[in-house]
Inverse folding.
């Protein structure tokens, strides 16, 4: 009797795991299909660039405050921690290099993407989810206007354009934060700070690679946000869950992609 | 693909069956919507009235049978073909479905901007004319959040007729409105239909208002057309379902109680289970 109950319970658990796994696979396929449809339907964005410009304002410009303030604090913390470690080895002048490389290679693209997912990604998901729940997307369909071309594609391209610009601004403000801590506060030589940074940061291997990462993160975060909104059940609970999934999925995908991209960029 | 069809009818539904998730919503439905008429589809909640509108608009595909608009089978059209058909249609959604980030003016101008190359001055005049027709020219600068339910429905109606459609579909146009707004919408549906020479399809369960403007009514129940006729025919009908629906009776062919197990067994069964549980604990 007990053995039979255990067997039933084990089968049920396996079935649940299997069903969740297949659902994830299905969602990945649906997301990839939507990505393809958005790219194919992007002609409207080229014909009417104002649609994209408007979305760049909402996703990019409106995210500036959180990105810049975070960058400033991250830069200052890097300055403090870096100096604390480097002075042990007598190379505190290399603080500029440490701050710049950390930001340009890793922290800039990654933290910008995480903040973007939290600020702009959730807004995109909630907006599209609510448009679906209030039948605005259906109304558009009935007016013979494709919601993919008119609503989703402009938001997608806006995210892809905004992310590298935000990441670049994050790096600039982060370096400024590191400078303010290292030079005026701690007393590291300003010439050493800037010259070592200039000598060590490579245009192609550091800055271009960082920008490439941020473009990839932009594509990933925006498509996840759009898909979650478009796929959300048209209820308050459905939109709320979709918004949460946007942040969780985007964060995990960004960190996973960061590892994969870094492993290709660094020759060991 | 064009089928043999009566040119008098702008929309025809032929032996249509539709269902999803293993549940059939419609089975063998036949309807005809003559040009220039106001035709209502009535029935209880969940009887698939709105689904019929979505099938006419090509948002859903039937499992069997077909919907023909202007003689063309909707579900056999390509995406571009369906979009061409939809340009002849206007639809008023139950909640208005106004774009919340656009003003009243921009909402009405939306279909014109998307489908025409009209100069801005002409769009301006057309939008004001459409808003004037629904009595809201003075509200063109407001945002949808600043409108009452009835005003929102009227703006949505102005948007639906923006391109002078041949078919106007109304999904529950009277739901949740106060009596004055209801009367205004009621009057507008009939007036606009006659003024534009369009065909109106109303989905509703508000008997009094719908009967006052409809030329012909279909009653949908149990997945089929349960009754049809002019409002007067249906008012005098002795069919049990129609009688219950038209007169708003609590019990009848549509039962008051949702299907459930025997009341007594269910109540006593709980006591019995509680008693057994207590005895097990004592042992």
């Amino acid at each position: 009797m007990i053995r039979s109950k255990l067997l039933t319970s084990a089968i049920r658990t396996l079935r649940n795991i299997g069903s969740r796994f297949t659902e994830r696979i299905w969602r990945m396929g649906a997301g990839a299909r939507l990505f393809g449809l958005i790219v194919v339907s992007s002609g409207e964005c080229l014909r009417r660039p104002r649609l994209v410009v408007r979305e760049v304002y909402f996703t990019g410009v409106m995210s500036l405050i959180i990105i810049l303030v975070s960058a400033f604090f991250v830069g200052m913390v890097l300055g403090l921690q870096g100096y604390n470690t480097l002075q042990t080895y007598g190379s505190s002048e290399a603080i500029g290099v440490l701050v710049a490389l950390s930001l340009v290679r890793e922290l800039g693209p990654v933290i910008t993407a995480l903040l973007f997912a939290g600020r702009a990604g959730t807004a995109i998901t909630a907006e599209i989810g609510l448009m679906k729940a209030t039948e605005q997307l259906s109304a558009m369909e009935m007016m013979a206007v494709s919601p993919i071309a008119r609503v989703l594609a402009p938001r997608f391209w806006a995210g892809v354009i905004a992310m590298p610009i935000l990441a670049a601004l994050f790096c600039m403000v982060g370096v400024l934060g590191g400078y303010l801590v290292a030079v005026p506060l701690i007393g590291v030589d300003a010439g050493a700070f800037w010259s070592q940074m200039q000598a060590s940061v490579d245009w192609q291997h550091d800055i271009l690679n960082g920008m490439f990462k941020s473009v990839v993160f932009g594509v990933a975060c925006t498509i996840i946000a759009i898909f979650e909104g478009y796929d959300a059940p048209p209820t308050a609970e459905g939109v709320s869950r979709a918004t949460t999934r946007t942040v969780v999925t985007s964060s995990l995908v960004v960190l996973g992609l960061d590892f994969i991209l870094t492993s290709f960029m660094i020759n060991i | 693909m064009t089928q043999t069809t009566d040119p008098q009818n702008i929309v025809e539904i032929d032996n249509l069956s539709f269902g999803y998730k293993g549940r059939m919503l419609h089975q063998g439905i036949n309807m005809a919507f003559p040009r220039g008429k106001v035709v209502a589809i009535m029935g209880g909640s969940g009887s698939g009235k709105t689904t019929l509108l979505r099938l006419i608009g090509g948002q859903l595909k039937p499992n069997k049978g077909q919907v023909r608009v202007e003689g063309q089978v909707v579900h056999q059209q390509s995406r571009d073909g369906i979009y061409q058909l939809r340009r002849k249609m206007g639809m008023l959604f139950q909640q208005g479905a106004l774009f919340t980030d656009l003003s009243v003016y921009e909402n009405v101008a939306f279909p014109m901007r998307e489908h025409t190359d009209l100069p801005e001055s002409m769009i301006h005049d057309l939008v004001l004319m459409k808003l004037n027709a629904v009595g809201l020219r003075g509200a063109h600068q407001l945002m949808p959040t600043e409108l009452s339910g009835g005003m929102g429905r009227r703006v949505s109606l102005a948007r639906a007729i923006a391109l002078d459609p041949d078919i106007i579909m109304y999904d529950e146009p009277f739901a949740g409105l106060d009596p004055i707004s209801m009367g205004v919408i009621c009057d507008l549906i009939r007036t606009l239909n006659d003024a534009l020479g369009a065909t109106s399809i109303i989905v509703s369960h508000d008997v009094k208002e719908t009967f006052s403007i409809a030329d012909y009514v279909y009653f949908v129940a149990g997945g089929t057309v349960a009754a049809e006729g002019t409002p007067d025919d249906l008012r005098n009908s002795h069919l049990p379902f129609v009688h219950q629906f038209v007169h708003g009776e609590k019990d009848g062919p549509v039962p008051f109680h949702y299907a459930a197990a025997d009341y007594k067994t269910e109540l006593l069964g709980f006591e019995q289970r509680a008693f057994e549980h207590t005895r097990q604990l004592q042992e």
Q: What stands out?
A: Residues 78 and 84 of chain B are 10 Å apart (CA to CA).
